[in-house]
Amino acid sequence: MKKRRIAILGSTGSIGTQTLDVVRQHPELFEVELISAANSVDLLARQAREFDVNNVVICNEARYEALSEALKDSDAKVWTGVDSLCSLVRGEAVDIVVGAMVGFSGLRPTLAALEAGKIVALANKETLVAAGGLVTKVMREHGAVILPVDSEHSAIFQCLLGAQGNTVEKIHLTASGGPFRTWDKKRISGATAADALKHPNWNMGSKVTIDSATMMNKGFEVIEARWLFDVAPKDIQVVVHPESIIHSMVEYTDGAVIAQLGCPDMREPIGFALSFPARISVGNRKLDFATLGKLTFEAPDLSRFPNLRLAYEAIERGGNAPCALNAANEVAVAAYLRNEIGFYDISRINEHCLAGLNFVADPTLEDIFETNAEVARIADGCIN
User: In the Cβ-directed half-sphere of 50, how many Cα atoms lie within 13 Å?
Assistant: First the structure.
């Protein structure tokens, strides 16, 4: 396999640091050309030195001087702002772009990479949630490739490799159920952000972990799967699987179901995306079927987790509705993490913003940015 040059957008977050761990294990296969972060100067500087990175971008321009000072005696070129990031990912020195930025901020750099015909290993689900139709259109027009990094979508992709052109009947998207799977609604209503951040299976960033607790993360994954695999929302079924061993399944016309299994470790789908179509060792724990015990499944409870229902409603409605849902949720989750609102206020704000949406059936990129800004203001008004 030819050595691949990687740009990691969001290298200091959970996916970014685990991507660098995969690179650390395989210096013969990968080299890091570019890393970026929003604010984390110290960690970004340490990463730049360890991996001898050529280009380092701090998106928050107020942190540029601090990063320049931290790397003044290195060979790294220091840049600032999202415009710089978009320009650099288009460069010939980049083979694969890992989209690991959090939230709507990942949209512009992802589009820039796709417009340049790059391979994008996408972990930033909000990009497809907010603008799935536009993103996939750009991908096709420029001959680019999106390889999913989410464990569930990587699993679906791997299951589809065995389809041999046969029709997919249904996608079964597994969900851990999060930290409140066994809690009743009254108890959940009093849950603090500290409670919600205690995910039973996965090590993720705070935003994604809260989304997992509300099951919005799974709703966003339904929307993401619709665009990645061109499957109607009605054919994407969420099933709660608390062991997080089966990462997702694909059902075919004859009733056969192909599943992808593995221990819950994000380095596995990251490594698969970086090395595809090859498979590489990533130092993860392997399954021991003799000691695994039972695997259990249950239907999601939309009463206790209404965000999942809202996600289905948004993708069925189409247009800019998923973008609006994402925008409202980003604001609401940030407020919840600051202990300004309660757990169910998140879904209430999301539903309010969806109901009052200035709907656009066929949004342009400008419409998407306007929707994001407008709904964020409305959601902020609900909180304040």
Answer: 15
Beta bridge partners of 272: none
- Beta pairing partners, 236: 171
* Predicted structure pTM score: 0.94
By C-alpha distance, which of 60, 115, 63, 128 is closest to 86? Answer: 115
Give pLDDT tens digits along the chain (384 positions). Answer: 889 999 999 999 999 999 999 999 999 999 999 999 999 999 999 999 999 999 999 999 999 999 999 999 999 999 999 999 999 999 999 999 999 998 899 999 999 999 999 999 999 989 999 999 999 999 999 999 999 999 999 999 999 998 888 889 999 999 999 999 999 999 999 999 999 998 776 667 789 899 999 999 999 999 999 999 999 999 999 999 999 999 999 999 999 999 999 999 999 999 999 999 999 999 888 999 999 889 999 999 999 999 999 999 999 999 999 999 999 999 999 999 999 999 999 999 999 999 999 999 999 999 999 999 999 999 999 998
For 120, 204, 226, the CA distances from 115, given in Å and listed in that order, are 11, 29, 21
Q: What is the DSSP string of 329-376?
A: HHHHHHHHHTTSS-HHHHHHHHHHHHHT----SS--HHHHHHHHHHHH
Q: How far apart are CA 202 and CA 114, in angstroms?
A: 29
Strand runs labelled E in 46-188: 55-58, 77-80, 96-99, 119-122, 145-148, 168-175
